[in-house]
């Protein structure tokens, strides 16, 4: 206590009062002015139930009644972008970020807790991807390229060996030259084919790696997710979830999730699925799982 007079004041009573007043006005020296680490985890992934556009995170800073502290209220809302028909979306509900984030995390938690999920995931991670067809194709294209290059070189040699004194020199030269041009065209096409197959192979391998990473994490979701920072949660969620659809309002039973689309197949009710839907027949709702 700098101002109670029991000890020699380092700051005078007057100064302290002044500083204190100032703090109340400027809001400096709050215990926590705003959440520096906060990230809007489902920004863009959560879809507006009216226009289908992405909903984005916003912050609303509310001052506490005694004026001493602020509390940040984070919410998702539609951006009301202008539509093609010139109208703006009129959905104005603000969804508390924690509530939506928790509901989605809860779905994943329930999903991964089943032994069926774990078995399927482990099997998937261990499995090698079958790229033999593409690899075979790549080998054939490479072989073709070698043959074409050989033919092109031979034609070049024949052109070099043409006899100037030959009475048909010009026609023979032209003939060989045309054949060589045709081969060049084929070489260009074959090289493009090879590059194309290689890109496809790389994409498949890359996809497999990111898929495995996500699945690997899902196995430990329960233990790890809550320990993640918001930034990490956001990174994981966006690598795993394509979109989250909600109803315009909470349903009478409190539920508001309508559909979650995943980037990778998940296992649910003995099936491999890309999405969970609460409003379609025979899916989540009737399973009694959620
Ligand atoms: Zn909207």
Describe this structure in words.
The protein has 290 residues and is α+β, with helices and mostly antiparallel strands. Among the domains are: 1-30, no CATH class; 132-217. The protein contains eight helices and seven strands. It has helices spanning 13-26, 97-112, 115-126, 132-161, 169-219, 221-224, 230-240, 284-287; strands at 46-47, 55-63, 70-78, 95-96, 241-246, 257-268, 271-277. The strands form two sheets. A four-stranded mixed β-sheet has the order 1-5-6-7. Strand 2 and strand 3 form a beta hairpin. Helix 3 (115-126) runs antiparallel to helix 5 and helix 4 runs antiparallel to helix 5 (169-219). It is elongated. The chain starts with 12 loop residues before the first helix and ends with a helix. The model is unreliable at 1-9 and 28-33 (pLDDT under 50). The chain binds zinc ion. Residues 48, 50-51, 53, 78, 89, 91 line the site of zinc ion.
Chart the SSEs and their pairings.
Blueprint (H helix, E strand, L loop, with lengths): L12 H14 L19 E2 L7 E9 L6 E9 L16 E2 H16 L2 H12 L5 H30 L7 H51 L1 H4 L5 H11 E6 L10 E12 L2 E7 L6 H4 L3
Parallel strand pairs: 1-5
Antiparallel strand pairs: 2-3, 3-4, 5-6, 6-7
Helix pairs in contact: 3-5, 4-5
Keywords:
290 residues; alpha+beta; four-stranded mixed beta sheet; three-stranded antiparallel beta sheet; 8 helices; 49% helix; disordered N terminus; binds zinc ion
């Amino acid at each position: 206590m700098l101002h109670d007079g029991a000890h020699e004041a380092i700051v005078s009573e007057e100064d302290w009062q002044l500083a204190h007043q100032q703090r109340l006005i400027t809001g400096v020296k709050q215990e926590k002015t705003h959440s520096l680490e906060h990230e809007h985890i489902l920004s863009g992934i959560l879809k507006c139930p009216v226009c289908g556009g992405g909903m984005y995170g916003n912050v609303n800073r509310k001052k506490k009644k005694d004026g001493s502290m602020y509390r940040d209220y984070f919410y998702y809302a539609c951006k009301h972008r202008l539509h093609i028909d010139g109208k703006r979306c009129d959905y104005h509900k603000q969804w508390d970020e924690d509530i939506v984030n928790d509901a989605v995390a809860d779905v994943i938690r329930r999903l991964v807790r089943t032994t069926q999920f774990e078995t399927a995931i482990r099997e998937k991670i261990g499995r090698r991807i079958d790229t033999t067809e593409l690899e075979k194709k790549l080998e054939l294209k490479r072989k073709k390229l070698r043959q074409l290059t050989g033919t092109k070189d031979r034609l070049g040699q024949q052109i070099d060996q043409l006899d100037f004194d030959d009475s048909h020199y010009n026609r023979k030269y032209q003939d060989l030259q045309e054949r060589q041009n045709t081969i060049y065209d084929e070489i260009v096409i074959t090289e493009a084919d090879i590059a194309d197959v290689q890109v496809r192979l790389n994409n498949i391998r890359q996809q497999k790696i990111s898929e495995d990473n996500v699945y690997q994490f899902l196995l430990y979701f329960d233990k790890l997710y809550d320990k993640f920072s918001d930034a990490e949660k956001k990174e994981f969620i966006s690598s795993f979830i394509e979109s989250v659809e909600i109803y315009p309002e909470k349903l009478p039973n409190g539920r508001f999730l309508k559909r979650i689309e995943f980037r990778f197949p998940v296992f649910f009710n003995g099936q491999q699925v890309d999405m969970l839907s609460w409003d379609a027949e025979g899916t989540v709702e009737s399973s009694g799982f959620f």
